[in-house]
Amino acid sequence: LYIRAIGLHQRSEYAEECRVVEEVIESYLQAEEDCKILCEDFSPQRIWTRDFPAVARDHLVSALKCKSQCASQLSYFNGRRYQNFFASLYQHLQFCYYHSQNLPKACEANQSFLLLVPDDADMWHNQAFYAQLPNVEEAWFKARKEVVEYLERQQREQDLLRRLELRINERPAPGEVSTTESPPRRNVTVVEDERSLNGSRFVAEGFLTEDQCNSLVELAAEVAVAGDGYDGKQSPHSRFETFNGITLGSIAVLTRKGVVDDGLARLLLDTSEQARNYVEAYFALRSRLHFSYTHLVCRTAMTVEKEGPRNDMSHAVHADNCLLQPNGDCIKQRPAPIWRDYSAVLYLNDDFKG
């Protein structure tokens, strides 16, 4: 069905394309439901105890982890994996409905896509385009019911998995004194704390020497990939800058191939670990922090001709683990990385404002 929809799109048969894409969405949701049902029979590879509650819990954790892979499995066909496949169906819908002169449906599909992929600049641009068209109503920008229900179910499963995994990990009893020591000094100095920043944030400096910072900047310049982590979009946050990045996993591969020096790879790894340790110690956490994502990035301002003074931000103010709403609320809902509890940014240069 999907391949047929692509063919209809290429032939500009938009009305028929919309009908087929609607079938694809229905088929996809049923396939994911079938996948998750099969996960109910998924058992942990090892059972360490005969205690029934523990066995039941381990079975549920295994089933939930299995279910979390269904979307990825269903996004792979014809020898390739399609990024954000389910969301992309609504991108097709908004396009074909627009060309079929069905603006309410186009706006609905647009909002549905943005609920699934809220940081897509192109779709926000499309929404702005629709909004300025004559007779377009604000009420049309409402996500479709199946998308809302899809994300709500995903949220419930992720929340349940997180709670179960927290139960599995050993944690200090309530009231137990934390064994975490005060933040390691290592010439690190806190220059702004929660009071000055009006929130659970702080700024510290002194993690690296100037030479170490320069070494990591040079490493990023040599091996970072344009648009890494943003589907290859070179300017995902601001059209006035380019974004290059590379993950620790890619660094490890390049190190094994001899492209990256072992010492530089170790410096990056140790620096990341030092930042993690400092955050853990600063907030006197009772449990160990674990990495979710580490990214060495380089943001470079672009020279734009015929542009006056600018005050655009390199990265807009945002919440890292929830969806920030216009009224100030922040909803713990995917596709935001809701499993994150703390985020840290270690700057390697200071020739910028902010």
From TrEMBL:
- Which Pfam families does the UniProt record give? TPR_leprecan (PF23557)
Q: Which UniProt keywords apply?
A: Glycoprotein, Signal
Protein's GO biological process: collagen metabolic process
Domain Leprecan-like alpha-helical, chain residue ranges per copy = 2-131
Q: Which residues cross the membrane?
A: none
InterPro entries assigned: Leprecan_dom (IPR056585), P3H (IPR039575), TPR-like_helical_dom_sf (IPR011990)
Please report which protein family the annotation says this sequence is part of.
Belongs to the leprecan family.
This one is known as Putative prolyl 3-hydroxylase 2
Q: What is the taxonomic lineage of the source species? A: Eukaryota, Metazoa, Ecdysozoa, Arthropoda, Chelicerata
